[in-house]
Amino acid sequence: MPGQSSWINDVTEETFEELVIRQSFERPVIVDFWAKWCGPCKTLTPILEKLVNEKNGAVALAKIDVDANQLLAQDFGIQSIPAVRIILQGQLIGQFNGAIPETQLRQLFDKLAPKAGKPSQSKPAPKKPLDPAEAEKLYRQQIDEDPSNEIARIELARLLVEQDRTEELEDLLSPIGAAGENGAEAAKLRGIVALRALAKELPDEATIAKQLQREPNNPELLYAMGCRLASKAQYQQALDTLLRAAELDRKLGESKVRNAMVQIFYVIGTRSETADQYRKRLTQLLY
To answer: Which of 5, 9, 201, 275 is the most buried (most CB within 10 A)?
Structure first.
């Protein structure tokens, strides 16, 4: 069995928040549900460990013994093992059950961290000119010359987001892995766009404010106001409002509120002091 590393951890109900949820804001976390008596687990787990070590910190592995951590297994709906769940930025992004071949697992890991362990060969993007049209032209030229230039991709994506032109966003950002500074910048831009999209589906702020005067403890209205505040970059006030909505309606907190708060975490920095504080408060409220 491959040796343990700092990216491979045995996780319990007490350490789940730190080693899975918080860590997932730095890198994808593969959560491996297993038990000592499970034969297929003895096949799957060593392969997962090997692939995680190959990724050199771009992916983490959290091993959960279902016999010792039955509440976690129940929370994830685990009915048979081995079972794998993939967490990124605090959200479930993938899953599978049973021991699957190493070739399939390797493909999965390459999608999660396509450039793990490889130093960037990207040429730096040019300084941003004052004219947005000229900047866009130069960034596109950089990308044409070197499609692996992540900095140029991010700068072009940022420019387009500023202009509310987001049709190309995923095409620009999808080649960038989740890890590192570039991954964080890509997540930030996606978060900004996601918060705008949430707000567009809701009434305007003035209408929501009037309704809240009549129903100050209405969780749906508080959620709507939180989304509106976030779309205006009033993140602290938005987080307070969203957390209040979750306190009043746990089911809403587990779904729409949690999603909105995660998008804010992307924007303000997933490991920022504010994100850590509100993530902990939300987790304590919901789990």
So the answer is: 275
